[in-house]
Amino acid sequence: MDHKEAWDHCLSIIRDNIPERSFQTWFSPIRPIKLSDKVLTIEVPTSFFYEYLEEHFIDILRKTLFKVIGADAKLEYSIIVHNNTHNSKPYAVKIPTQNKSDLTNRPVSMPMGSNSTNNIKNPFVIPGIQKLNIDPQLNSDYNFQNFIEGECNRLARSAGFAIAQNPGKTAFNPLFIYGASGLGKTHLAHAIGIQVKERFPEKTVLYVEANKFERQYADATRSNERNDFVHFYQMIDVLIIDDVQHLAAKQKTQDVFFHIFNHLHQSGKQLILTSDKPPVELEGLEQRLLSRFKWGLSADLQVPDFETRKTILQKMAYKDGIELQDEIIDYIANHINTNVRELEGALVSLMAQSTLNRKEITIDLAKDLIDKLVSNTRKEITLDVIQQTVCDYFSMPVDQLKSKTRKREIVQARQIAMYFAKSKTKSSLSTIGARIGGKDHATVLHACKTVKNLLDTDKRFKSFVTDIDKMLEN
Ligand SMILES: Nc1ncnc2c1ncn2[C@@H]1O[C@H](COP(=O)(O)OP(=O)(O)OP(=O)(O)O)[C@@H](O)[C@H]1O
């Protein structure tokens, strides 16, 4: 048995024992490299990947290897590092944090300012910020207790939670959280900051929106305080920058951020960034910044599925001290399927209506209000919404649609998603391709043509497309 056969055999066992989504996320990207003396070497994309496997799948990996290779089987990881070399680690041995720099090809030779805190002036206009004893600018409501977990945010939440226990010391540095509007990026970023402050009160945490960072920098430059600005930011232990996409085309701000980023990262400080797009799709940001954004972990927040929407509503209602009948929760969760902010809005409107009019919250009141709300705020049809809707319709995980698999039914679903993405959004063909399965623009064009042809020739296929169209439009 060679390494490929052995690993294939292992995969078939693992696949039967874990959820398909986990399998796709954590096992599909692994490549077997060699098998010698019962030691199987597998290649994983990042050290985070390795740590995650060790933490979550160690038991199943161990049992499967013993079954396939024998009782004295061993597993070695080969981790792809930035300079395209590999680093093999023996089975079940964690990467010691102090050796992390061996694994990541960190450049940086930026001259550093004095670390002394005495002569640092506070360059900011934000009231409350003073030298190191700064207000972290965190919203206490946005904590982990209030952040509801579901398949849609599990990876980002787990990574965020791990960071909060050990800021700067995990492989997730930076943590790059991305996703469409209203899905909880800001909330999660604050939750990490709050938890760090609770566990390590002496640490300096700062949340700042990218726009504000830009304005502060412009002010500091105007008043000749650029160095103070840089020194100030270089003293932060956990720096959270929200909506980094707003730094696009701001060359000078990107330059200064680049230096701050390098300094903090090299000093083992934690960076948390949020954006509405993954690093590969961020336009107008310098390549050197984008490549650094990919050093740690990029984790997306997706549109919550129906069950998670229900949980979110139940917990939100509970927090506000009201009890809603299941029928009402189901109705809202069914009709508001865009993002968490809108779910929250619907619940607040419902409570307001019932309080103002002294009416009980009944299913009729809920229907009346939600129907108005939905028709007034015609939901934006985004690439995420399209992919989620197509996957809901065919009962498949979004991961599969985004994967490279050539299984017929998945290819078909992917083509339908591309067709709707082309007809209902303004996204370019290459963006559509990149977001749906990592394909190029020619594949998207081909998909649109195929769907149009099938609409004319295949009745069953046409009914799929019509149903999904209705779901998107309603
Ligand atoms: N998983 C969740 N659990 C509980 N509340 C959530 C969750 N996700 C989002 N929310 C709530 O939804 C609202 C919108 O979230 P948030 O502002 O974090 O979204 P965002 O992704 O940063 O959006 P934008 O890109 O528009 O700034 C907030 O009130 C937040 O508390």
UniProtKB/TrEMBL annotation:
Gene Ontology CC entries for this record: cytoplasm; plasma membrane
Keywords, sorted A to Z: ATP-binding, Cytoplasm, DNA replication, DNA-binding, Lipid-binding, Nucleotide-binding
Residues in Chromosomal replication initiator DnaA C-terminal domain copies: 382-451
Recorded GO MF terms: ATP binding; DNA replication origin binding; lipid binding
Region (Domain IV, binds dsDNA): 355-474
Compartment(s) of residence: Cytoplasm
Residue stretches spanning the membrane: none
Gene Ontology biological-process entries: DNA replication initiation; regulation of DNA replication
Matches recorded under Gene3D superfamilies: 1.10.1750.10, 1.10.8.60, 3.30.300.180, P-loop containing nucleotide triphosphate hydrolases
CDD domains the record matches: AAA, Bac_DnaA_C
PROSITE patterns: DNAA (PS01008)
Location of the AAA+ ATPase domain: 171-301
Region Domain I, interacts with DnaA modulators: start-end pairs: 1-88
HAMAP family found in the cross-reference section: DnaA_bact
Domain commentary: Domain I is involved in oligomerization and binding regulators, domain II is flexibile and of varying length in different bacteria, domain III forms the AAA+ region, while domain IV binds dsDNA.
PANTHER family: CHROMOSOMAL REPLICATION INITIATOR PROTEIN DNAA
NCBIfam families per UniProt: DnaA (TIGR00362)
Family in the record: Belongs to the DnaA family.
Quaternary structure, from the entry: Oligomerizes as a right-handed, spiral filament on DNA at oriC.
Role noted for this protein: Plays an essential role in the initiation and regulation of chromosomal replication. ATP-DnaA binds to the origin of replication (oriC) to initiate formation of the DNA replication initiation complex once per cell cycle. Binds the DnaA box (a 9 base pair repeat at the origin) and separates the double-stranded (ds)DNA. Forms a right-handed helical filament on oriC DNA; dsDNA binds to the exterior of the filament while single-stranded (ss)DNA is stabiized in the filament's interior.
Protein name, per record: Chromosomal replication initiator protein DnaA
Species this chain originates from: Salinivirga cyanobacteriivorans
